[in-house]
Amino acid sequence: VIVRVTIPSNATSADTGTATLTATSGADTSKNDTGVYTTTVALAIVNLTKSFSPANPALGDTVTYTINYANAGNATAFDTVLTDALPANTSYTAGSIKTGATTAAAQSATAFTDGGGDDSGDFGQSVASTVSVTLGSVTAGSSGVVIFQVVVAANTPANTAVTNVAQVRYETPDGTPKGPNDSPQAQFTPGRTISVDVSPATSALNGAVGGTVTYAATVANTGNGTDTMALTATGLPAGWTSSIFFDIDGDGVLDSNEDDAATTSTAELQPSGTYKVIVRVTIPSNATSADTGT
């Protein structure tokens, strides 16, 4: 005879089930014998955890992601592949994929080449914009570490969370595909950067006594959050005056309709937004040759 045991789909690693086969004589029911057959569930369970450093990354920082994998089952996981899609607002650091039995071992290991087919790790070759590492057979109770690095984009909008999840796929001993199993979410929010740019940085013109000179300039919000910039023109000698106007059509010329558009601040500017102005300098009538005003 053959005794077939069906294991339920909700069985877990190392669960056991015992089937007892009893054979009883038809001539004498007091005569019997038994066979005891015990089945143990052989199951691979590969779990992931994920962390990053530094703890509070800023714009432009290099962030190291550390992914720990472990087979918590009682059987080998075959054809194991770990993947990690690059989060938005980051860029991959070439040559940063490493593996090891521990974090320290991974940090000191030789990095993979990033190319496909020449070693066990690549970036963007197996899956676009994704770190992929072939771990192969992960035996029961074994563990390891994968690390890689990214750079936080300098123009990441303020208060934007950078979120990342790693995944693992593998096969159980009977060839059943498992996964993707996700790691817990790793998330950080870069701080706000406030930055302003005025261009051109310098300019010099000649003007007549009692006349005016105009300078076209562009004020840019080079930070990562919405901002409004106060505008002042200071430092001129006594008797010299200045006014700032919004360059409505952006042509660098103070047109008649803009002469009434004097301003002391920009409009609200989004990151990378610009505001064009014209600075008008009035030279006093008592200025002398080669006088300068800045």
Which features does this protein show?
2% helix; 41% strand; 294 residues; mainly beta; 5-stranded antiparallel beta sheet
Q: How many alpha or pi helices?
A: 1
How far from one another are the termini? 104 Å
| Low-confidence parts | none
Number of strands: 18
User: Strand content of the residues, in percent?
Assistant: 35-45%
Helical content class: under 10%
Derived structural class: mainly beta
Order of helices and strands: EEEEEEEHEEEEEEEEEEE
What is the CA-based Rg, rounded?
35 Å
Regarding quaternary structure, what we see is single chain
The main sheet comes to:
5 strands, antiparallel
Please tell me the overall pLDDT.
Answer: 93
Molecular shape: rod-shaped
How would you describe the overall organization of this protein?
- The chain is built from one helix and 18 strands.
- The longest helix has 5 residues, at about 105.
- The termini are far apart.
- The chain has one helix spanning about 105, and strands at about 15-25, 30-40, 45-55, 60-70, 75-85, 90, 100, 120-125, 130-140, 145-150, 160-165, 165-170, 175-180, 185-190, 195-200, 210-220, 240-245, 275-280.
- The strands form five sheets. Strands 3, 4, 6, 7 and 10 form a five-stranded antiparallel beta sheet that branches.
- The mean pLDDT is about 95.
